[in-house]
Write a structure and sequence with these properties.
Elements: E1 15-17, E2 38-40, H1 46-58, H2 60-67, H3 70-73, H4 78-82, H5 93-96, H6 121-124, H7 129-137, H8 143-150, H9 152-155, H10 161-172, E3 178-179, E4 182-183, H11 216-220, H12 222-225, H13 236-242, H14 244-252, H15 276-280, H16 321-332, H17 338-372, H18 385-406, H19 410-438, H20 459-462
Antiparallel strand pairs: 1-2, 3-4
Keywords: Signal
GO molecular function: oxidoreductase activity
Organism: Dethiosulfatarculus sandiegensis
């Protein structure tokens, strides 16, 4: 979309708490409630003021979030982010009806302005250009392309539209569309990290900096990343909670300084142990802050076979893994000695090699043998229980083992990881060898529930790639 900056007054906001004096007989009551009001002590555009005053009444929670934000103190109002170009196709027609009211003095035609609900990284880039550029290169922003290139659930239509919408796409993002002139409920609301916006930008900054507070403190805390990075297949939040990092955070994190300016959040000064953001995004020592979470990675721990990031075919990283590993090690060395860091990486690399050679490669070869002998249809995917065994070996237990080793969570590395890998591997191999011995085709469900999803790749992404 082509949202515009709003040309308001140049004076800064002054946020004033107006306290109504209590009656004399109540002056001594220490818990006497006092009414607080928000007042703007400067001249701003009447349209901008209308937005603020109307939302203060109609959606007080939204207003309160904004009023406590750094945007408010920096003179950034609703209309600065939501004002749309008259040519934008996602202008809210419903919002125009707000200017035809008789019960709200701000809801009149004098204050009419075209607005759009979906604020995009392109909009945010007017004030945050570096962050937007970094984010656009990341796997977060490009995750819809990635999952459509590799995910059998989508490509085989194995889950329904609503299963995707309320599950997968809630985190990965939707392709925004219109229905009857308004945002389509099958695509909105959504703040997925890879959301495809009308202006061509990818993602939503509100994935991590939730509206309308857009708090840097919130984005630095692990619970924010844990909205998506949790569960049986990628339990990074649970793994981190178990680690020493997580234990220290839960013990004393409430006293840390979460609100220091971007680029200045410092280990040993503002916080004692890193969160997800501290390791993967925040500036630390000689390493600069980044909004590209693809950086600092030396392994693709989520892939079936662990590979280097530049070998990840759906979205190969342009970065050199050795350089990025050194960056992450510099982050580690803000709190750990050089030998400690080196040995930790040696342990992680050993766990990766063990998983690749002992579990994944033999299982993948056996799956290939089943297909070659015609005992497992190539398109069986989740309709065949034996395929599920193979899938969960890498997608569940294998990921937990590798990520547990990388993030120093022994219970996940062993009991939720390699121990479960052993069980899954033995069960899979037993079934596969039996089918081969008996020359028997694997069971494939005839009636697989919810397998109604479209198998058509989003044109908004893949037509542009030609």
């Amino acid at each position: 979309m082509g949202k515009k900056f709003f040309k308001g007054g140049l004076a800064a906001f002054i946020l004033v708490c107006v306290v109504n004096p209590a009656p004399a007989q109540d002056q001594a009551a220490p818990n006497q409630a006092k009414e607080k009001a928000y007042r703007i002590e400067r001249s701003i555009s009447q349209k901008a003021l209308a937005c603020i005053e109307c939302h203060k009444k109609e959606s007080p929670g939204l207003f309160a979030d904004w009023a406590h934000s750094r945007h408010a103190s920096a003179n950034i109002t609703c209309i600065d982010c939501h004002l749309a170009d008259p040519a934008d196709k996602d202008i809210s027609q419903r919002h125009f009806k707000q200017y035809e009211r008789s019960d709200n003095k701000w809801g009149v035609s004098d204050y009419r302005a075209p607005v759009a609900a979906a604020v995009t990284p392109k909009d945010c880039s007017r004030c945050h250009p570096d962050e937007a550029k970094q984010y656009a290169k990341s796997k977060h922003a490009n995750t819809i392309e990635i999952i459509w290139k590799l995910d059998p659930w989508l490509n085989a239509g194995q889950n329904s539209d609503f299963e995707r919408l309320t599950g997968c796409l809630h985190c990965h993002g939707t392709v925004l569309k219109l229905k009857n002139g308004e945002l389509d409920p099958m695509t909105w609301p959504n703040v997925g990290v890879g959301r495809v916006n009308f202006d061509g930008s990818l993602g939503s900054c509100a994935s991590c900096h939730t509206r309308h507070r857009f708090s840097v403190a919130e984005a630095r805390k692990p619970e924010t990343c844990g909205q998506c990075h949790l569960g049986p297949d990628h339990p990074q939040l649970e793994i981190w909670n178990e680690s020493k990092h997580g234990a220290i955070y839960h013990s004393e994190g409430a006293s840390w300084n979460w609100t220091s300016a971007p680029g200045t959040w410092t280990a040993g000064v503002d916080y004692r142990t890193p969160t997800c953001a501290g390791c993967h995004m925040s500036g630390s020592g000689p390493v600069l802050t980044t909004h590209d979470v693809t950086e600092r990675l030396s392994w693709e721990l989520q892939a079936p076979l662990t590979i280097r990031p530049q070998e990840f075919k759906p979205f190969p990283s342009p970065l050199d893994w050795k350089t990025e590993r050194k960056k992450m090690q510099e982050v580690c060395k803000q709190c750990h000695g050089e030998l400690w860091v080196k040995n930790h990486y040696d342990q992680m690399d050993g766990a990766v090699a063990l998983y690749n050679e002992t579990y994944f490669k033999p299982a993948k070869a056996k799956l290939g043998e089943l297909k070659k002998k015609g005992l497992l249809p190539k398109d069986a995917f989740f309709k065949a229980p034996i395929f599920v065994e193979f899938y969960e070996l890498w997608h569940h237990e294998g990921r937990r083992a590798r990520m547990g080793a990388a993030m120093m969570a022994p219970d996940y590395a062993w009991w939720h990881g390699f121990y479960e890998c052993k069980k899954r591997y033995v069960h899979f191999m037993k079934q596969a060898n039996h089918l081969i011995k008996e020359n028997q085709k694997a069971y494939v469900a005839e009636d697989y529930p919810g397998a109604t999803g479209s198998t058509k790749k989003p044109a908004e992404i893949f037509n542009q790639k030609k």
